[in-house]
Amino acid sequence: MPAARHQGRGAPCGESFWHWALGADGGHGHAQPPFRSSRLIGAERQPTSDCRQSLQQSHQFEGICAGFVRETFLKLGHLRPGIWDVHQVSGRNRLEIARYEQYAHLVALDRAAKADAELAAALGSDYTITPDIVVVRDTEDDSAINAPALLVDDSVTTLASLRKKNGGLPLLHASISCKWTIRSDRAQNARSEALNLVRNRKGRLPHVVVVTAEPTPSRLASIALGTGDIDCVYHFALYELQATVEALGMTDAADMLAVMVDGKRLKDISDLPLDLAV
């Protein structure tokens, strides 16, 4: 996992992804005007604007995160057996999660809303959820379930979602939202999607997490603090961020980071694969 974590730092032009993430102006590239802490944190590195502008930052960040989760989580089969798939959601499919067992009923809901304008107005978009990355577990054949001993047959477990013979869809294990930076609207959007995942499911709730590269502790707090919607926020360079605010003598920022970390609301991305194995 250490190697995979640092591999994700490799950005074009040979610079550290961490420094490249912060932007040449000391801010976040395409983010809103940065706070003082963002400027200070980003001041150590001035990447070329041509390199940064040639990349679609958010989409690339999602791809790197998906690659990291795929490379690490799939190696934990001894801790979390199963047939797994990790992929980045392309095309912003508003009914992506309807492909999975817990949310398959949303297809019928969407069909009804399209046929009835009044119903569509009442429902709004509360049932549409578009994760950036999904972790999916496939259903299991009886031969796999019965490998150690005869555990299932046609007289029992006829409704269990994990059993392929029951005809269910693959199971959504985790929904991962990637936020290159965090503005107030992005924080609210992530929370709304998390609550929609909670409210609209039938069956087990998948892991609902956010991965971000946001360097400003106050903005991290806007999405990390509080409970009930998101499992946890994962920073792609938490250790480096902690070291930087300490080195710059930013006491308030260091204290805020400590509150989120000690409160188990903010973790490093290297913690994510093991948390997904729970």
TrEMBL record:
Biological processes, Gene Ontology terms: DNA restriction-modification system
Superkingdom as given in the UniProt entry: Bacteria
Name used for this protein in its record: Putative type II restriction enzyme
Entry GO MF terms: type II site-specific deoxyribonuclease activity
Pfam families associated with the record: NgoMIV_restric
InterPro entries: NgoMIV, NgoMIV_sf, Restrct_endonuc-II-like
Keywords carried by this UniProt record: Plasmid
Native source organism of the sequence: Pseudomonas aeruginosa
SUPFAM superfamilies documented for this protein: Restriction endonuclease-like
